[in-house]
Design a protein that fits this description.
It is a single chain. 36% of the residues lie in helices and 25% in strands. It has 181 residues and is an alpha+beta fold. The chain is globular, with a radius of gyration of 17 Å. The termini are far apart.
Length: 181
């Protein structure tokens, strides 16, 4: 006997709710480790995510990515910034959820909230990093869409499936990210 559409829909939504709970725990772990290392979330109670509820854009009903941005704690004008996009529905040709991590040096001090507001699109940088390992310099052409204030940046793609606990959050994401800035 096949599963009904109603049961399938219910199971799918419950799976997403559990996945979102796991993703929230991952973000909380990153936030904690960043705080211990002297970095603060630019928007502590928010995360960048392009979602909506319009019937004309059903593709926005489900989370595609969730972004966090950090600057050194207690700096009114940041000269460096790191950001992570947890990309759960990646652009083609990627076929696996991943973290896009980026560390940038800024040409001058910039208010952290300004950095958050100017972040636009990480897809060109993700494409530039496809097939690479570790943190790599990002092509200058990707910076205006990523962080226009950046004078240089390094980025990495880390498979989300590789980050299974606090040890991996530290060893695969937070420590290499901070070493790249």
């Amino acid at each position: 006997m096949t599963q009904s559409i109603g049961k399938g829909a219910c199971d799918a939504v419950r799976f997403l709710q559990e996945f979102y709970s796991d993703l929230a725990a991952l973000v909380a772990s990153v936030d904690t480790q960043m705080t211990v290392k002297g970095w603060s979330s630019v928007v502590p109670n928010d995360s960048g995510a392009l979602m909506g509820n319009s019937v004309k854009q059903p593709e926005r009903w489900v989370l595609r990515f969730l972004s966090r941005m950090y600057t050194p704690t207690n700096q009114a004008q940041a000269t460096k910034v790191v950001a992570i996009a947890f990309v759960v529905a990646p652009p083609e040709p990627f076929n696996e959820a991943h973290c896009f991590a980026m560390a940038a040096s800024l040409g001058k001090g910039v208010a952290p909230r300004t950095l958050w507001n100017e972040w636009q699109d990480s897809e060109p940088a993700q494409h530039a990093l496809r097939g690479t390992t570790g943190f790599q310099p990002l092509p200058p052409a990707t910076l205006p869409m990523l962080i226009p204030s950046a004078s240089s940046a390094r980025g990495a793609i880390i498979p989300l499936a590789a980050i299974t606990g606090a040890t991996q959050v530290s060893g695969l994401l937070v420590d290499p990210l901070l070493a790249a800035v």
